[in-house]
Predict the structure.
Amino acid sequence: MNELINDVVATLTANGGEMSYRDLLDTVPFEKRSLLTRSLKMARQQGILTPVVEWKPEQGGIVHTYKLLGQVEGQGD
Amino acid sequence: MAVAFEMIFTASDDKGKQGTTTVNLPRTFSLVDYTTFGAAMATVIDATLAGRVERAELCLGVDLSALNNNNAAVSGDVENVGHFQFTTVNGRPVKVNVPALDDSMVQPNSNDINQVTFPIQQFTDAMELGINVGGTFIQPCDVGQDDIIDLEIAREEFRASGSRR
């Protein structure tokens, strides 16, 4: 699982520290997507990254991204 | 033109049946003002009843015109419910039901909701961490205003339609 978390971190880092969840899903084959979701949850629990859900009507509505911590501003605990 | 807010008073009789009184209110007051008005109006209504005022709730109408693709599919059924159970920072459960769940969100040959799918993950992240609305994070909570932090159960259930609280 640590290897998967490292892969996720590497992918996010290569993309400036954040990616949409949809784009993250597209980086892994279908059969590994449940593992990816679990990795994201573990990484979140370890304080490595966080999902951010934002209301941006000018961009079509909801924007759902995963961000490496240190990239996020203005969020509560 | 923006529509008025509604204050809904629920009354019950001694047989346990319930009915409601709805009062429209201008949108110009503070939450404190509305809650104080609610208690005062409940007293006024109570004086007219041979029943009991159970609760008074403020209903804020929300503009949904920004929703995209907000259409009811032929396959949709409000009795097909996505049942989610979250837990709070203090370990208490919070149950949330989503009627008319899209069947494509459910794992094949199972009643487990597929948490990998984009809409479901978006929903659970919004419930657990809130939504940033113009710089303010608003996070769903339980009745005691404790933050929801984790998803425990996500499954499809079938329930008869009708009003439920």
Remarks:
- Residues 2-14 of chain A form the longest helix (13 residues).
- The longest strand of chain A covers residues 49-56.
- The interface with chain B takes residues 21-22, 25, 33-34, 36-37, 50-55, 57, 60-62, 64, 74-76 of chain A (CB under 8 Å).
